[in-house]
Amino acid sequence: MAGRSRAVDPVDRVRRYVREIASVEDKSVDDVLSSMEPKDLSRRAGLPHKAVDKAIKELRSPQDGPARPQGE
């Protein structure tokens, strides 16, 4: 099997899932994360909570851009 040696990164899988929800619901990533319990996100994505927790931390990091304007 050439190409991929590993399955899709679970953090990337959560990141894509949350961004897709945000896009469909016309919400910010932070709004989606705030409205969904990590355990629910873990269940929906079919991933262990550690991967989901890591993805949430990365999605909320400044390098991902501001999730919500300051003062809201």
Biggest sheet layout: none
Instruction: Name the structural class.
Output: mainly alpha
Give the CA-based shape. globular
Task: Note the beta-strand portion.
Answer: under 5%
Mean pLDDT over the residues = 79
Helix content: 55-70%
Radius of gyration: 13 Å
Task: Walk me through this protein's architecture.
The protein has helices at residues 10-24, 29-35, 38-45, 49-59. It is an all-alpha fold and 72 residues long. Helix 1 packs across helix 2, helix 1 (10-24) packs across helix 4 (49-59) and helix 3 packs across helix 4 (49-59). The longest helix is centred in the N-terminal third of the chain and has 15 residues, at 10-24.
Layout of strands and helices, then pairs:
Elements: H1 10-24, H2 29-35, H3 38-45, H4 49-59
